[in-house]
């Protein structure tokens, strides 16, 4: 048992940042596929479940997704109108999906 805990901690330290970078890359790539007028269901099919959800303007809502490294994050935001359709998208400046984020 004494050996297992340090080994598990080492594996988590090495694997978790890679998961964050991979998730960030996928979010960036998928963000470019979201278009104004899409339904919440369509966005969820492309982006998956949002990392966060906040009330938006005019009875709408805003979904956010992670993008960036462990030290420099900028969420991707998708704003829905009161009808549940995409009104605007805000992708991180680098969120083109062409390059993997660094710094993890």
From TrEMBL:
Signal sequence interval, chain numbering: 1-21
Pfam families assigned to the protein according to its UniProt record, in alphabetical order: BamE (PF04355)
Source species, domain of life: Bacteria
InterPro entries registered for this protein in UniProt: BamE-like, BamE_dom
Keywords, comma-separated and alphabetical: Membrane, Signal
Gene Ontology cellular component list: outer membrane
Domain Outer membrane protein assembly factor BamE: 27-88
Full protein name: Outer membrane protein assembly factor BamE
């Amino acid at each position: 048992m004494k050996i297992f805990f340090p080994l598990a901690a080492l594996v988590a330290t090495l694997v978790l940042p890679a998961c964050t970078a991979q998730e960030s890359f996928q979010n960036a790539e998928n963000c470019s596929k979201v278009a104004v007028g899409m339904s919440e269901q369509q966005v969820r099919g492309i982006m998956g479940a949002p990392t966060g959800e906040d009330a938006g303007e005019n009875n709408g809502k805003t979904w956010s997704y992670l993008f960036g490294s462990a030290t420099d994050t900028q969420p991707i935001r998708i704003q829905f109108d009161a009808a549940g359709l995409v009104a605007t998208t805000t992708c991180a400046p680098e969120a083109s999906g062409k390059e993997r984020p660094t710094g993890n």
